[in-house]
Specification:
alpha+beta; six-stranded antiparallel β-sheet; 14 helices; 32% helix; binds adenosine monophosphate; binds glycine
Length: 434
């Protein structure tokens, strides 16, 4: 790779890709960043190219035309479709797992097989690939039960069912009505685990790995962890304060066996591995793997990274991650997602957004745009479910949370919706309200 003036493409169009592009643009070795397709919010630090994330031929063509030095494949769909393989075959450096390794995310039943083979602690599960068997199981299983679509479903294909009627309804919705298309052709029934959740993200070159600070997502739509699952409504970092023995357990019982098994299968996992954990009374258990940065975990974690992101991504693709030492700010970070009213169900688009400049003037605040567009008059409008990711960093988590909500207060659009309890017990606003 050239030493200077690198051209880097970030594949994707949401807040996560905005954060990756912004961080990469800060690298002294990066000449230009192109986000494909990107959104209106990245234009201050990157260019955009109108190529859909699932248009594999189009993405390869774009990388060739631009003579890209690195393509960062950020979202789940192109990873599951094998964009990394196509880029590598075309001689283009790509960051992100190959299709066979991305199955850790794109097939929950495959992930369960890996966990079983590697002896990784996880929820007990039963896999069903036909409607009659799934209905029978839902009639007789222990309650509560978690019903999951096997394939990709934007984080929304998981139903925590307290009653038999709910379990049957989930089966009907996923398998009979195909609410998430083919993703629901196979279902998993899982034992319902209890405990705080924690996201552990790590960079890996397939063999070596480097942990990022742990984060905590808030997946349910409403305050108090109620309502349907979403792609994520907010994140805090650190998401938990774990002791060194607890970290050792996570590394030795979960992360290292996962990477080792993928190597043994000759499908090493190279990229960012997302390990979703539940910290149960019996110890940490894996709820899911994702084959990529979380969204909005990425937006929350990256502002704390001090090492050049390009150096890290290159080292992962070159198998030399052990040669660099990552350094992180000793600070905390909070992201509050501002969504369109109605998300994750149906919502309106095209509402004008104001107040971004005032929000970003606040100390430590960055607003990443996710579902935005410019209208014909050049006004910034809403164009998706999750619209803005409002991130604040501060030395202390309570201050980061307070500052993120101050920024949210400065931003306006019709029917804006956000959770008020991001950070849970660490949220000073909740303490003040009591
Ligand atoms: P997943 O897409 O598999 O991460 O599931 C989305 C969310 O559903 C998780 O973040 C958890 O909050 C919840 N969940 C998933 N599996 C379980 C489980 N076995 N027990 C309890 N909650 C779960
Ligand atoms: N925030 C959860 C995810 O990206 O899957």
């Amino acid at each position: 790779m050239k030493a200077l003036n690198n051209t880097v493409i970030v594949v994707g169009g949401g807040g996560r890709e905005a954060a990756l592009a912004r961080q990469l643009a800060q690298s002294p070795r990066v000449g230009q960043v192109i986000v494909a397709p990107g959104n209106a919010g990245v234009l201050g630090f990157a260019k955009t190219a109108p190529v859909a994330v699932t248009d594999l031929a189009g993405q390869v063509r774009l990388a060739r035309d631009l003579q890209a030095d690195l393509v960062v494949v950020a979202p789940d769909d192109p990873l599951a479709l094998g964009l990394t393989d196509r880029l590598l075959e075309a001689g283009i450096m790509a960051f992100g797992p190959r299709q066979a390794a991305a199955r850790l995310e794109s097939s929950k039943s495959f992930a369960k097989t890996v966990m079983r083979e590697a002896g990784i602690p996880t929820a007990r599960s039963v896999i069903c690939d036909n409607l009659a068997a799934a209905r029978d199981y839902a009639q007789t299983c222990d309650l509560p039960v978690v019903v999951k679509a096997d394939g990709l479903a934007l984080g929304k294909g998981v139903f925590i069912c307290q009653t038999r009627a709910e379990a049957l309804e989930a089966v009907t919705s996923l398998m009979d009505l195909h609410a998430f298309g083919q993703a629901g052709n196979t279902l998993l029934f899982e034992e319902c685990l209890n405990g705080p959740e924690l996201t552990v993200l790590l960079f890996t070159d397939g063999v070596h790995y480097a942990l990022m600070p742990p984060s905590r997502d808030h997946k349910r739509a409403q305050d108090g962890d109620r309502g349907p699952n979403t792609g994520g409504m907010g994140v805090v970092v650190p998401g938990a304060r774990l002791s060194e023995p607890e970290w050792q357990l996570i590394r030795q019982q979960i992360i290292e066996p996962t990477l080792k098994l993928m190597q043994d299968r000759r499908t090493p996992f190279c990229g960012v591995l997302y390990v979703g954990l539940m910290l149960t009374q019996q110890g940490p258990k894996v709820i899911e793997y994702n084959a990529r940065f979380g969204d909005p975990e990425c937006q929350t974690v990256l502002p704390l990274l001090q090492t050049d992101l390009l150096d890290i991504l290159e080292a992962c693709t070159a198998g030399t991650l052990d040669e660099i030492e990552l350094s992180w700010k000793a600070a905390a970070s909070c992201c509050v997602v501002m969504a369109s009213g109605g998300y994750p169900g149906s919502y309106q688009k095209g509402r004008e957004i104001s107040g971004l400049e005032a929000a970003e003037r606040l100390s430590g605040v960055t607003v990443y745009q996710a579902g935005t567009a410019l209208d014909y008059q050049g006004r910034l409008i809403t164009a998706g479910g999750r619209v803005l990711d409002v991130v604040a960093t501060a030395p202390d988590l309570a201050d980061a949370i307070r500052q993120a909500y101050k920024a949210v207060d400065a931003i306006h659009f019709d029917q804006a919706y956000y959770r008020r309890d991001i950070g849970g017990s660490d949220n000073p606003l909740l303490k003040e309200a009591r």
